[in-house]
Write a structure and sequence with these properties.
Structural class: alpha+beta
Number of domains: 3
CATH class of the largest domain: Alpha Beta
Radius of gyration: 54 Å
Order of helices and strands: HHEEHHHEEEHEEHHHEEEHH
CATH architecture of the largest domain: 2-Layer Sandwich
Strand order of the largest sheet: 2-1-5-4-3
Distance between the termini: 94 Å
Shape: rod-shaped
CATH topology of the largest domain: Beta-Lactamase
Number of helices: 11
């Protein structure tokens, strides 16, 4: 593969060289100066010792503008890790350059602080008029940000479901994780490429105004994130935590839409079960409260009925006691009166009869009021107990 790349580069260089030979010296210098102003450039001798370097290269590698002396005289290996510098691969790299071959590609190098930098570069052997290699010029561009982004995308691609669409919703790519998530085999990409996104939603939703507006907003560059209900290849429901990300080109035009998704069906279904249980519990609590209220109403009604009956019974009992007491008093009074008059007629002592009548009358009233007082005390105690129960 390396040999093939080198042969292609050699052919392209030969073509470019033949064209360059037709240019004047002034034109050649002008072009080299233009390259020097816009690219990181460094020169090496055939053993790899640094001969010269421009400010763009110094700044890219962390040395700072103007600090040429920090690099001139050092070996190219200062830009690579120690293990690679001692490897046969690194020696072969310089053998190829010394043979006059061009070398182009993406290279991982080390800055002054030993942090990684990725350079898109060409190593160009420079020949004198006799065709002898005199030095090697490296022209480089810092592509670290691009490489890091690619690494991040690769990492996401290895662990997350990814699918790409045109701005019209046509599927252009899908990784194996997405395919398996949606019920396809990991190698069945051809079964989804070219289909519309609507293949993953219900028929009713695909015909709705909401779905049409969804894609209109994506075409306008709007980002969507949330939990989406979708359909697997067998028609079963799946829930995806996903983001729809419009992709822009260098001019700000939307070129496609990338969806990053994770299967959260189990979590969503568990949440629904918990919500259902919570709702059922709320209903049962409401029913229990209604039952409690009904029992309280029935209890209060029963207590009220009992209180009415007790009041009625107490009133009737008091009436009976009073009537009996009055009857006894009247009876005793009649008997005593008769005895008193007989004593007068027979000239007997009436003081004993009066005293006896008075004592009987006093005992009778005392007992009557005692009974009435007891009944009233019971009634008061019953009322107090009922009030506490209500509280």
């Amino acid at each position: 593969m390396l040999l093939k790349s080198l042969l292609v580069l050699e052919e392209e260089t030969s073509l470019a060289t033949s064209k360059m030979k037709n240019l004047s010296k002034e034109e050649l210098l002008s072009r080299l100066e233009a390259i020097n102003r816009s690219n990181a450039i460094i020169y090496f001798d055939l053993s790899g010792i640094i001969l010269g370097v421009n400010d763009i290269f110094l700044e890219a590698m962390g040395y700072g503008i103007g600090n040429h002396e920090d690099l001139i005289g050092k070996h190219h290996s200062t830009f690579v890790c120690e293990e690679y510098a001692k490897s046969p691969e690194y020696e072969k790299f310089w053998d190829i350059l010394r043979s006059g071959k061009y070398y182009q590609g993406e290279f991982e190098r080390r800055r002054k602080d030993r942090s990684l930098i990725n350079l898109q570069a060409t190593y160009n052997p420079i020949f004198d008029e006799s065709g002898k290699i005199t030095k090697i010029m490296k022209i480089a561009t810092d592509v670290t940000a691009i490489v890091d982004s690619k690494k991040q995308i690769d990492a996401i691609n290895r662990s997350t479901a990814l699918i790409s669409f045109t701005t019209d919703g046509i599927i252009t790519d899908a990784n194996p994780i997405f395919l398996e998530t949606m019920g396809y085999r990991s190698n069945e990409k051809d079964k989804v490429i070219g289909k519309h996104h609507s293949a993953f939603v219900s028929y009713e939703y695909s015909k709705s105004d909401e779905y049409v507006k969804f894609w209109e907003n994506l075409r306008k560059g709007k980002f969507f994130d949330g939990i989406f209900e979708r359909r697997k290849v067998d028609g079963s429901i799946i829930y995806l935590q996903a983001s729809y990300n419009p992709v822009f080109d260098s001019k700000g035009n939307i070129t496609d839409v990338v969806k990053i998704a994770t299967n959260v069906t189990e979590s969503v279904l568990n949440k629904k079960k918990i919500d259902d249980l919570s709702n059922n519990l709320q209903v049962e609590l409401a029913n229990s409260q209604k039952l409690k209220n009904a029992i309280e109403i029935e209890k209060d009604a029963a207590l009220n009925d009992l209180d009415v009956q007790m009041k009625k019974s107490q009133s009737e009992l008091i009436k009976i006691i009073v009537k009996v007491a009055l009857a006894v008093i009247v009876g005793v009074g009649v008997v005593t009166t008769i005895l008193y008059w007989m004593a007068i007629i027979t000239n007997q002592d009436t003081q004993i009869i009066g005293s006896t009548w008075s004592n009987m009358f006093s005992v009778l009233l005392t007992n009557a009021f005692s009974i009435v007082g007891t009944i009233m005390g019971i009634k008061y105690a019953t009322q107090e107990s009922g009030n506490k129960d209500k509280k």
